Amino acid sequence: MRKVLFLCIGNSCRSQMAEGWLRHLAGDRFEAHSAGVMPCYVNEDAIRVMSEVGIDISQQRSKHVSEYDGQHFPFVITVCDPARTSCPVFAGETHREHWPVEDPGMFNGPDEHRLAVFRETRDEIGERVRGFIERAGR
Predict the structure, then answer these.
(1) What is the pTM of this model?
(2) CA pair distance 134, 11, nearest whole angstrom
């Protein structure tokens, strides 16, 4: 299986969702990982909205990108601009993609509005992961 690493700053929402989507949709073809430049925690709202579509990310954890030092990733996908600019170089040939996705964790509002933002992000990342699988899954 080819390894894919999703990177963002906190490894709390977007990269966690992407890891969950890829594992759910193509876990037999890709080995999904995620990490952050400044990891913190897996956001409870991300866990909640992913569970709404049948994907459990509750056992995933926020990891620092240094945990993957020395490993080869055929695919590295950044989901925010700060991660793109601070993304380390990995050994071997790596295909890089950048998916600039707004951070739903930055939205402060009433529960239903906040969850709506998380759902939009979840769905956008799901579509991007489906497109990635079509392009790279052959």
Answers:
(1) 0.93
(2) 25
